[in-house]
Amino acid sequence: MTTTKTETQTNISEVQFDYNGSYARVLNPTPDLDEIFYTTLKFKLSSIEFENRKNKYNQKDPYVSLYDRKSHTFPTGLLPRLNTLMKTDKTIPYNLGTIYKVVDEPYYGYLNLKEFQPFKGYDLWEHQIEAVRVALSTKRCIIQLPTGSGKTVTIGTFLKAFPSAKAIIISPSESITQNNKETIESIIEEDVGGVYGSKKEYKRITSATQKSIYNKILEDPNAFNDVSILIFDECHTVGYTQTFWTINRAFANTAYRIGFSGTAWREYGDNLAMEGYIGPHVYDIKAETLQKKGILVNFDYLTLPISDDPYHRYPKFDKRNYRYKTPSGKPERLDVYKRMIINNDERNNAIIKLAKEYYKSDMPYGPGLIIAESLDHSQFLYNQLCSFLKEEEQVEYIKGGGRKNHKRNVIERLRNAELNFVVSTKVFSVGVDFPAVGFLIVAGGGNASSNLVQKLGRIVRKFKNKTKALVVDFEDLEGYYLNRNFRNRTRALTNQYPSTPVKKLNSVDDIISNYF
Q1: Overall pTM > 0.70
Q2: How far apart are the first and last CA of the chain?
Q3: Contact (Cβ atoms closer than 8 angstroms) between residue 290 and residue 54
Q4: How far is CA 255 from CA 104, 106, 135, 227, in A?
Q5: What is the pLDDT of residues 390-426, one digit of tens each?
Q6: What pLDDT, in 10s, does the model give residues 338-360?
Q7: What letters, b where the CB count within 10 A reaches 16 and e where it falls short, cover 492-502?
Q8: What is the bridge-based pairing of β-strands 298-306 and 502-504?
Q9: How far is CA 338 from CA 137, 335, 451, 504, in A?
Q10: Can you list the alpha helix ranges (DSSP code H) found in 41-167?
């Protein structure tokens, strides 16, 4: 027999709340309850930790809390977390009492998800149906759907269930925002507003960039008082920043807040903020599960070793004590990155040889994509590719902030397999759909696990006769930073694709002879 908290503890008080779309408020606070909630909702900001490492003489407290002890408020999305805490922690003499909701729910028109076709001849997959059901019933939540799993269709289907509600879909980039507008427009069969760049067209349902919504709130804090549904696409970008603090407050009348992402976690320690502004993480389907169902294609993940240069002395090296004159006692990360990645002949020669031999082998997996982290590196690789590929017919280069029409043209040509290679900065890592691509070179390394998973999402979509894809990454043996970054990337691969092994090869020739 299990005992409840009430049965094992006396003098338990009930905690009452009221809440809107932005903040929940404790109605009967006590000093000890304030302290419990403050401590529970406290976390460490890695951005402040990083500043502290750079400047040891001006240290800041890296801890912040999402609970305000003066107003006794916290972001509404954290209410389920505090409810669970009070239910399970027997040392806390409080139980959840009455919750007063002060937002109106929009009219929900019934939608038969089993029979609904967002496009003619397109039936929803089971995971899409389940994701919509979870969003409708939970009202505030984060849903993780891998790239290629029909995330935008899921968002459009969810909105189809609300024939009159006003909604905003917020995305981190203009390309994602525009794609959402066009796709959702087809599904709900009405015009969708678009707010990105110079375009400022608001309608009942509007697709907008984070920046445009933030700027609109600064102009008019009450601009979105009539919005009842707020959707965050690529919600892993939502964190503890002034932008999202402002957006959170401005959408106080939202009854539904749903976040979607293929990598629904934060790399910088503020997952709690994402949860507070949106809601708890309640639904997740692994990309590998969709591979087994034939929705996504399988891929091989190959790595090549890149030698370390342990005797190179980076700037700020002190020959007297064999240490670097930096707070960490290590060389600066940027100096290492420039030497061992951007200007590393071993690495760059391997990338170019891979691309050249892949092209000669008639590209068995489809068009190739090379993603670098920096402008200098990507531009160099593009110039090298142009030495054996015909510029603007067989190879293209994309960077952030480039010409919008050019970028859209490249995306369309890549989708239709009209290009052989594209070299890109991180701008092509997230939210761009080109299923024809089947060969990916991770040229720039990188540390964030979510970045690798997003990059893998570029090559797992199905396309015509495409049955498999190929990824080449580099095992950097540099000991200060880059080898740790490599281990983080492979750990992310194992978490999301546990049946896909890391295949360590010794040379480019091994890849050419075995996979091209």
Answers
A1: yes
A2: 62
A3: no
A4: 7, 7, 12, 9
A5: 655 688 887 766 566 777 788 788 878 888 898 988 7
A6: 999 999 999 999 999 999 999 99
A7: bbeebbeebeb
A8: parallel
A9: 50, 5, 20, 24
A10: 46-54, 79-88, 126-138, 151-160
